[in-house]
Fold Aminoglycoside phosphotransferase.
Amino acid sequence: MEQAAERFGQGSYSLKLLGGFDQNVFEYNGEDGRRFIMKFLDASKYRKASIIRELTWMAYLAEQGLNMAVSIRSTQDLLIEEVTHDSKRYHVIAFTKAPGSPLTDVTSDFAIIKQWGRGMGRMHKLGKKDATASSLVDRMAFPQWNDHVIFADAFPEAAGESVHTQWKQYLQELESLPQDEKGYGIVHNDLHHHNFHVHNGEIIFFDFGDVSYHWFAYDIAIAIYHAVQTVPENRKAEFVARFFDSFLSGYLQENTLSEEWIQRIPLFIDFRNIYSYVYFAKFVNWNEMDERTRKYLLAMKADIEAGKSVVKLSI
């Protein structure tokens, strides 16, 4: 932390842990009073080339008019610094902290939800192979949807055989889907309501570390899936119908998505659910979980095993 803070011009004493899945995201104040975000990425897990693609794509989206968190350079004029400690190597990147705050009321601020959908639609339009800047899109060698280690490595035993059976069924169905420019391209892959801020009625997007080629309908499903988790069970159906209507009306202002793909969104919502469970089962130490998290994951597992959909979405 000391090394990285010096590289980006601030003593580590000012770094405050914000979190992140790997507890690797920090905030610090610059000498001019501005606030910045610093991320430490384990070099054994994150290749420098993938970080370069992430920063390049964010810069391109900003050029195309999307409000984005801005990368900052180190005192050596580098966007990516490398630090070593106890023989472990880390890539370090930093951004200006997006002004504003997270969307605090997902259940009622439908004007922002529409803007959220419009922003995603714009990203998807720019992420198509036939986009205006297709030469850039063609050069962006992002991973395909199933290139993640969660698909390549052994299935986690902790998830259980019943979940494994359903997991294989989902993968088989997804592998059969077309991957043409009408429904497949570069997506954010994690654009839930904690990955943007709202400032003066405008959305500022950030955290593009999971960008990949995927189905556009899946990116929409991610937004719906995480938003619906904030709502009590007895209100989910009503909420998701209104959320979907607002989000999609914004989305379709920027990108065309056929009815055939829209009809698949419920499939992708349920896939996101099993993906999230398998991810936790694979990468989180169950013995170190608090009781609340453990109970939540056991309930997820029970719903998956019972074939229960996350939410009833009538399209």
Remarks:
- The domain at 110-305 is CATH 3.90.1200.10 (Aminoglycoside 3'-phosphotransferase; Chain: A, domain 2).
- The chain has a mean pLDDT of 92.
